[in-house]
Write a structure and sequence with these properties.
The structure holds two protein chains of two kinds. Chain A is an alpha/beta fold. Chain A is built from six helices and four strands. In chain A, strands 2-1-3-4 form a four-stranded parallel sheet, with helices on both faces. The radius of gyration of chain A is 15 Å and the shape is globular. Chain B is α/β, with parallel strands linked by helices. Helices cover 28% and strands 24% of the residues of chain B. Chain B contains 19 helices and 36 strands. In chain B, the strands form 13 sheets. In chain B, strands 10-7-6-18-31 form a five-stranded parallel sheet, with helices on both faces. In chain B, strands 20-27-21-22-23 form a five-stranded parallel sheet. In chain B, α6 packs across α7. Chain B starts with 9 loop residues before the first strand and ends with a helix. The chains are: A alpha/beta, B alpha/beta. At the A-B interface, α1, β2, α2, α3 and α6 of A face α4, α5, α18 and α19 of B.
């Protein structure tokens, strides 16, 4: 297995965690080169489908970061995301995707340090796992049935 | 697949950010790589896009290349999304056909290796280009707002809120459930910590309400139903009949003198009796009599008594009155429904209800009042002056589960008034931690100690017990901090009880879907520090003890703050802009599962009664997307964060 920089999709809410990512930038803290941020209004907006598609599109890991429990701008969007994540982890296991490839955690607007720590720690964990997920080398990529542009392209590239 | 309905022309702007981006990311190479992306008509690198020159450049390029969709790669959208939306808007384009991607904080500033930073920036930009082509023009809608304010609760907080709103020119409906405005404060004679005369201050405020042309006062009234949202609430108010015509009653006492029936006076907390037809207190607003159906023999014994009808010189008594339902429309609601004191009869060890001279602090207020049952003389029920008085703090502390934090200060009134009126009376305080404001003047604890008042600390877990001692006196036993037991006798016991939310507060919070504090049930602020007078429901504000125990000053402060907040959202003659970033329902796909109805924190997901499917009330939706992610039929979608837009962004940002 050749060492490849893992691609991490970070799904951030517009309130706390996106601000934390900005804070990490403001402090010039090193974050993984493979980190890709997508901004959402709230982690409660995250569709499980988005996550499954992300793996198909080439993500080695997905990290969901929300406001700390009790701090959600929309009351409990973050706990909604937590419940959905726990649910999805069971499914991932059945698809033979190690559940470590899906993380959820909380970070406040001023916690740039914590943000950098969380995404860097995820990178370490992904490197420790097989960098190229086993499922991607086979034809059984999740979401492949959806015929998504990115997913199919990814498979072509890998082949 | 991008939209092909019309020609999409994407313009891409890259910002060097005065070199802080370009020193890491080679923007020229980035620009070249992006030029061949589908539908991109140009890429442009600028030194500082957010500067006036940068903004002018954006406008110029948009016109020159007839751009339809704009991508800006610069800093955080939290900082400059409004700036570039304005720029796009000023160039005659829809501000929602813009995607701002953050190549500064999320890329140049956190990625040391230039190659890697450029790769990341390229991925972000490709994602933004793909996303923006799927964005649709959105328009901020405007809501015509009703400028009137509905104030629920006619105590100190409600009265202050009503006066404040009326002073700003807004119409007010003030709803009070009892026959007169005034609430708890109307019963006080002097107010701690300054010992100012309460009626002197408060009666003027009540008079101002009566005189105001903009305030409509509804008494003996309660809310049956409230629906709506900021700018457009509609409440159904039920008014119980008072059997006296408010227009005719002149506030004389002819009916009271004639009335044969007596009832316990709620204003004196049962310490005295009044007639079944009565004016609650001197200076009541409205200053009119009201019939207590719990005492009037026409209702209790079905007797055809007409003593008051015959006695009234203006024919104001009218037993033909019935319950009235009235629709009130308002743009904002102020919840000022107050508190209720913990009822010590729930606690047999308090002696309340078993011993005649065990009083609550509220009852003591009435004893001390010149309009009270003893005309202000501090005497026992048998009319004698007590030798010793015991004041017990924190009654109901365990049952309530929290410290109210505002009862200690008025409790000092007991010692102060006794020392003023009967200096020989021994006063002992049994307290836990004393919650006294640092700036309390007048009745400080030290001042009372100097006059011989005793302060005894009780173990935090022990509740003093009140039992019948010798000669009908109260025998109070308690444990001190060292666990030692003490007993003392008192001719009079005053119980300082904590504050609980009024049942009406809880009911209204449910009706309005306003969040309550888990621990105590008071209405929770939307943000305890930043929006302390606003509830979790837009357009519903909190004043006074409905939001938790407060002293008089804080009650007035919050009442004024709540109206300030409310009126800032209801400017007279203007509309309220609504964000277009909301959820909406494709009703053809809705399976009527109702999942969204229970998930929406704002009650925006509603059932469209005509077809039984879900709909989203745009004025209530805050745009979180919780319902969108949950909908099993994909019937719920969201403007500006649609599944289609997000999928395109995610796919592109992960592409190699």
């Amino acid at each position: 297995v050749t060492e490849r920089e893992p691609k991490i999709l970070a799904l951030l809410c517009s309130e706390c965690s996106y601000a934390a990512a900005d804070d990490a930038g403001g402090r010039h803290l090193d974050c993984p080169p493979g980190l890709r941020v997508v901004r959402l209004p709230c982690t409660g907006r995250i569709d499980l489908e988005h996550i499954v598609r992300a793996y198909a599109a080439g993500a080695d890991g997905v990290i969901i970061l929300g406001c700390h429990p009790g701090d959600c701008r929309y009351r409990d969007g973050n706990t909604m995301a937590l419940r959905r994540t726990i649910l999805l982890r069971y499914t991932l296991e059945q698809l033979q995707i190690p559940p470590e490839r899906l993380e959820i955690d909380w970070v406040a607007a001023r916690e740039g340090q914590r943000f950098a720590h969380l995404v860097n720690a995820m990178r370490e964990r992904l490197i420790a796992l097989e960098t190229t997920p086993r499922w991607r080398s086979s034809a059984e990529a999740p979401g492949a049935t959806g015929g998504q542009q990115g997913g199919s392209k990814e498979k072509r590239d890998e082949a | 697949v991008p939209d092909t309905r019309e020609q999409i022309r994407v313009g891409v702007f890259l910002c060097r950010c005065a070199g802080t981006v370009s020193e890491t990311i080679e923007l020229e190479r980035l620009s070249e790589a992006l030029a061949s992306e589908e539908n991109v008509v140009f890429t442009s690198i600028q030194e500082l896009l957010c500067s006036p020159a940068g903004i002018a450049h954006v406008s110029h390029k948009l016109q020159e290349h007839d751009v339809t969709h704009t991508v800006v790669a610069a800093c955080s959208p939290r900082e400059h999304e409004p700036t570039f939306r304005d720029a796009v808007s000023c160039s005659g384009r829809n501000p929602y056909l813009l995607q701002l991607t953050n190549i500064r904080e999320h890329c140049a500033w956190v990625t040391r290796e230039p190659e890697a930073a450029r790769g990341k920036a390229e991925a972000l930009l490709r994602a933004a280009i793909a996303r923006v082509q799927r964005q649709v023009p959105l328009k901020a809608t405007e809501l015509t707002a009703n400028p009137n304010v509905l104030v629920l609760g006619g105590g100190l907080a409600g009265v202050e809120a009503a006066l404040q709103a009326a002073a700003e020119g807004h119409g007010v409906t003030l709803v009070e459930r009892s026959p007169s405005l005034g609430g708890h404060v109307a019963r006080y004679d002097e107010i701690t910590p300054t010992f100012q005369c309460a009626p002197c201050m408060f009666s003027k405020r009540l008079d101002a309400v009566r005189e105001s042309e903009r305030i409509d006062v509804l008494t003996q009234a309660r809310v049956e139903e409230i629906v709506g949202f900021l700018g457009n609430f509609r409440a159904t108010i039920i008014e119980r009949p008072r059997f006296v015509d408010l227009e005719l009653c002149i506030g004389c006492d002819a009916c009271m003198e004639a009335c044969p029936a007596s009832v316990g006076d709620p204003f004196d907390d049962g310490l005295s009796v009044r007639k079944a037809i009565d004016i609650p207190f001197p200076g009541a607003v409205p200053h009119a009599a009201s019939v207590d159906t719990g005492g009037c023999v026409r209702f209790t014994r079905d007797e055809p008594c007409s003593a008051c009808v015959d006695a009234c010189p203006v024919d104001a008594v009218d037993f033909g009155q019935t319950i009235q339902r009235r629709q009130v429309e308002a743009g904002a609601i102020v919840l000022a429904t107050g508190f209720q004191s913990f009822d010590p009869s729930q606690l047999p060890s308090s002696g309340y209800g078993r011993l005649p001279d065990v009083y609550t602090l509220t009852q003591f207020e009435r004893l001390a009042s010149s309009t009270g049952p003893t005309s202000g003389k501090l005497v026992r029920r048998d009319g004698t002056i007590p030798h010793s008085v015991v004041v017990i703090h924190c009654v109901g502390r365990e049952q309530l589960g929290y410290c109210s934090g505002v009862c200690c200060e008025p409790a000092l009134k007991v010692g102060t008034l006794f020392k003023r009126q009967q200096p020989q009376v021994g006063v002992t305080y049994l307290h836990r931690e004393l919650m006294l404001a640092p700036d309390s003047t007048g009745a400080t604890k030290e001042h009372l100690i100097a006059q011989g008042v005793q302060f005894c600390a009780v173990a935090p877990t022990s509740t003093p017990r009140v039992e019948i001692g010798s000669g009908g006196r109260a025998r109070v036993s308690y444990h001190d901090g060292n666990g030692a037991e003490h007993t003392l006798d008192g001719d009079m016991v005053v119980l300082v009880t904590g504050l609980a939310p009024d049942p009406e507060t809880i009911q209204l919070a449910h009706q309005l879907r306003a969040q309550q504090h888990e621990a105590d049930g008071f209405v929770a602020a939307d943000h305890a520090l930043l929006r302390p007078a606003q509830s979790s429901v837009d357009g519903v504000y909190i004043a006074g003890c409905a939001g938790g125990p407060k002293n008089i000053r804080d009650t007035v402060l919050q009442a004024q703050a709540s109206v300030g907040q409310a009126l800032s959202r209801l400017p007279l003659g203007k509309t309220i802009p609504l964000s277009p970033v909301t959820a909406y329902v494709d009703q053809q796909r809705c399976s009527r599962c109702k999942l969204c109805l229970s998930l929406c924190p704002y009650g925006a997901c509603q059932r469209d009664e005509s077809i039984g499917r879900a709909r989203v009330e745009q004025a209530l939706c805050q745009g979180c997307g919780i319902c969108v992610a949950a909908c099993p039929s994909a019937a719920l979608q969201m403007h500006h964060f649609s599944t289609r837009q997000l999928s395109a962004e995610i796919n592109e940002v992960l592409r190699d």
